[in-house]
Amino acid sequence: MKPKNLALLVLSFVLAIPYVIPFYWMVLASFRDAAMSQQPILYPFIQTLSNYVYVIKTSGFLTWYANSLLISVVTTTLSVFISALSGYAFSRISFALRDQLFLLVLGTLMIPFPITIVPNFILILKLHWVNTYQGIIVPSLAFVVGIFLMREFFKTIPYELEEAAILDGATPFNAFLKVSLPLAKPALSAVAIYTFISVWNNFLWPLIVAQTPNMFTIPVGFFKTANGQAIEWNYLTAATTLAIIPTILVYAIFQRYFIKGIALTGIKR
Amino acid sequence: MSVFRKRSFFAYLFIFPALVVLLTFVYFPAFYSFYLSFTNYNLLSRHYSFVGFENYWKLLHDPLFLDSLKHTAIYTAGVVPIQTLVALGLGLVYSSSNRFVKLMRALVFVPAITSSVIVSLIFIWIFSPSGFVNSVLSLFGVKPENWLIVPSAALPAIMSVAIWGTSAYFMVVFIAGINSIPENLYEASLIDGAKSAWQRFRYITLPLLKPSVFIATVLGMIGALQIFDLSYVMTNGGPGYATYTALLYIYDYAFSYNEMGYAAAASFLLFVLIFVVSLILRRYLEVKRWY
Amino acid sequence: MIAVIAGVIILTRTPSMPTNPSSSAQAPVTIVFTGWVSSGAEYQFDQEMVNAFNAQHTDVQVVFQPITSDYDTKLKTEIAAGNAPDVFYVDSSQVFSYVQNGLLLPLNQFVNSDSSYNISDFIPETLNAFKFNNNIYAIPKDWSPLALFYNVKMFEQAGISSPPSTWQQLYQDAAKLTVKSNGKVVTYGLALPPDMARILAFVYQGGGQWITPSGKSVATNSSQFITALNYTYQLIQQGYATMPSAVGAGWDGQAFGEGLAAMTIEGNWMIPYMNQTYPNVTYSVAPLPAGPAGRATLLFTVGLAIPYNDKHPQQAWEFIKFFTSVQGQTKWVELGLALPTRMSLFNLPYYQNNPDAKALMSEFSYAHPWSFPTANFAKVYNDANAILQNLFLNKITLEQAIEQLTMSGDSDLSSST
């Protein structure tokens, strides 16, 4: 068994290299000044921290960071809650039109984003939500994959526990809140990560909604700064390094639940 | 009876928020888009009128639109199969529960969780005349180029970035699938005479992964047909429209030329394309026991 | 719960455009001014103008809210939403599409009733870029031509004593200035992007034109146009000129600053850019070389306009008047960002003492406005540039390029919306 195991370990290391190298270079380049950052980067050394200082002080980076953070956290929280509520209802309660409504929900996956941009834009225009947080957040709130995941998950939980709570006098909503939700932590985490990361990285919709720099999220801000002008790689790499930290943190912390969550809802059935 | 009705009420209440958002921001726009596609609505004009199928006619006769569809098709046909294969391979390696492997897996995942804009910017640098690709190619005597402006290389360059960026995402699907294959199936196959790993793979793993392949392919295809971020940031559809994809075309007409009706027609045609391809894939790839 | 509260807090603290329709004499009317910001210096300058105006007026106060990119789309969005600013920048190439849709307030009423404003002081070409059917739709606030920026040191090293003044000289100089090392080109003679906003200067120098005065067709298959395009194409083919992206530069200004090219064709904005980003490069400015039909250059100008349905047109005009007055324009001339549109300012000491600025200023008599009577400009421009790109990249021949430019130009211009 040993040689086989070793082969697997080596393979897993070798395969990971191409995925990590560009980031490795990027981080290294962020510690070099303008002239050096153009050279092929082979060995680590920290030449200067001034790129980070510059990025943080200028270019509105902090504002974009704050915007991204705010939008991601709010959207994720609301979205997870909505997904949990809906997934629960679809899995637990049998009500008229349940299956049809669920198909309706799933059906939105079929509708590609491009078809919705133009009318959504006109819609938020009329609502005077252009260049506002709610303009960016509200349209992304119903995360269909999340609803699907939560529904699958709730199907695996025996409902005797909630029945017991309801028989004890709790309202269905309280039963949901106090009993089912805490049990759903792994799935909730999976949905939370997916949502957080995808909202954080969202580019097209915030690009369309945001008009002035104070409303940019990180991807939009980066694009606007780099576009067409001279790209100063030393500042850009410092900024990108800072920008990927939250997603990496979120991923690192919730990683366990991430794969577990998918496996749970899994392809089994 | 009354308990049932009360429960139903809560059910509707629970799904209400999701339905409101979906109806308002997905279904309504879809129908409105369809409606707009028959008008000449322009953001600036204070009046607009019904033009019937004129937008569709113009679209199907616009060489640029047809080109953008072609680029999108090439992109999808290239990216999806390779991406699925790579994801399958990665899934086989990284489904192990070994701690080291899991750590490596976390690294493989980093591109997938990075914003496409950031990935694009990093690769602009990598493909630039002084970037990594050229330093490697110069060892073979190839003259340094900005690969993103070489018309024949630009689209393949973007495709490789896409595969690099999202293969980990689909790897997860395969990992979940692989991990859900019961161990005893493998044991049974050993007894039945399946000696090599390849045989085990071919007769057990692969067939049982069909649902995963289906999901990865369909999701991959839906994503690939709507490619925007990478081509917008890396090349903005250039050089000379060589990497102009369908969604770039829609974006330009809607937001640079403000012809919303025309853009709506284009997006509807794209929707039809996606729908048809999904149906085809479902017919040939789907395994009944999906749900 | 927390999320809901957070959501509510966000919804109530919406940042949005403040418009204060107040007709009472006590509270000052607030108007919104917007523009794009090409540099930190321009941003500061605009803000200073706003502050100076606010200090001098008690009945009107201006708020500056720039839009830093995708300017036209964002502005059109705001107008469509009924949220338009009171005063905004409008580029001469875009103004026609606004005018055609009736979105701008004609300013004749203000100009004519105010003799101190002296509209005849304005350079006619700049004013004409914003005049249609005898209505003035915007006041040009500044302008810039294209000129030849050249690296003094490289010229010395190549033994060239003065900048080229004809096509032939430009060609020869570019050849001399292209430096190779180990078989690889280290410096090109000229940085030239495949962009109509540069190539068109050559077209005019050759006696040709691009979009015809009717705004409905292009003259890209005339012999003059072909000669001009071929001239630039040859420079690229022979390797004496390069596209900025081919050498990894974001634009030709960067290629010039990095020393990848000895010459480039740019406008006023190069001066502050070079001073800030490449202070160690010694360069000089000369008028563009003359072609077969003589000297020509492009004139880029930005105007200030008021939306057709503005609630405070009088106050908006006060600001425009202030910004474009003799005092207003004198203020920023010295920033070197752009040239003033008032002819009375030509004799300012700044121009006497500054040969580079003087060179740019001297081109106004043969500058062609970058302004065309078509609402489809963005499309024609994008399509033309894509074709130029393919030509410079050798993907198509010159004949094919001409054919495509003609076909797509005519078709884009005649498209009805």
The N- to C-terminal Cα distance of chain C equals: 49 Å
What's the number of domains of chain C? Answer: 2
According to CATH, what is the class of chain A? Mainly Alpha
Subunit arrangement of the protein: heterotrimer
Radius of gyration of chain C: 23 Å
Q: What spatial form of chain C do the alpha-carbon principal axes imply?
A: globular
Residue fraction in strands of chain C? 15-25%
- CATH homologous superfamily descriptor of the largest domain in chain C: Periplasmic binding protein-like II
Q: Which pair of protein chains has the largest interface, and what are the residue counts?
A: A-B, 91 and 91 residues
Query: What is the gyration radius of chain A calculated from CA atoms?
Result: 23 Å
CATH level-3 fold name of chain A = MetI-like fold
| Principal-axes shape call of chain A | globular
Number of strands of chain A: 0
Number of strands of chain C: 15
CATH fold topology of the largest domain in chain C: D-Maltodextrin-Binding Protein, domain 2
Main sheet: strands, sense, barrel of chain A: none
What's the mean pLDDT score of chain A? 77
- Percentage of residues in DSSP E strands of chain A: under 5%
Characterise this structure:
The complex is a heterotrimer of chains A (269), B (291) and C (417). Chain A has 13 helices and no strands. Helices cover 72% and strands 0% of the residues of chain A. The model of chain A is unreliable at 265-269 (pLDDT under 50). The longest helix of chain A is centred in the C-terminal third of the chain and has 33 residues, at 233-265. Chain B has helices spanning 2-36, 54-60, 63-94, 99-108, 116-127, 132-138, 151-179, 183-191, 197-208, 210-225, 229-234, 246-256, 260-285. With 291 residues, chain B is mainly alpha-helical. With 417 residues, chain C is of the alpha/beta class. Chain C has two domains: 29-143 and 300-369, D-Maltodextrin-Binding Protein, domain 2 (3-Layer(aba) Sandwich), CATH 3.40.190; 147-298 and 373-414, D-Maltodextrin-Binding Protein, domain 2 (3-Layer(aba) Sandwich). Chain C has helices at 2-12, 40-56, 71-80, 95-100, 108-112, 124-128, 152-157, 167-177, 196-205, 223-237, 252-257, 270-277, 313-324, 326-333, 349-353, 355-361, 377-392, 398-414; strands at residues 29-34, 60-64, 87-91, 131-132, 135-136, 139-145, 147-151, 179-181, 184-191, 241-242, 261-266, 283-286, 297-305, 339-340, 367-369. Classes of the chains: A mainly alpha (269), B mainly alpha (291), C alpha/beta (417). Chains in contact: A-B, A-C, B-C. The A-C interface holds A 70, 73-74, 77-78, 81, 121, 125-126, 128, 130-134, 137, 211-215, 224, 227-231 and C 2-4, 6-7, 10-11, 14-16, 65-69, 74, 77-78, 80-81, 83, 249-251, 253-254, 257, 277.
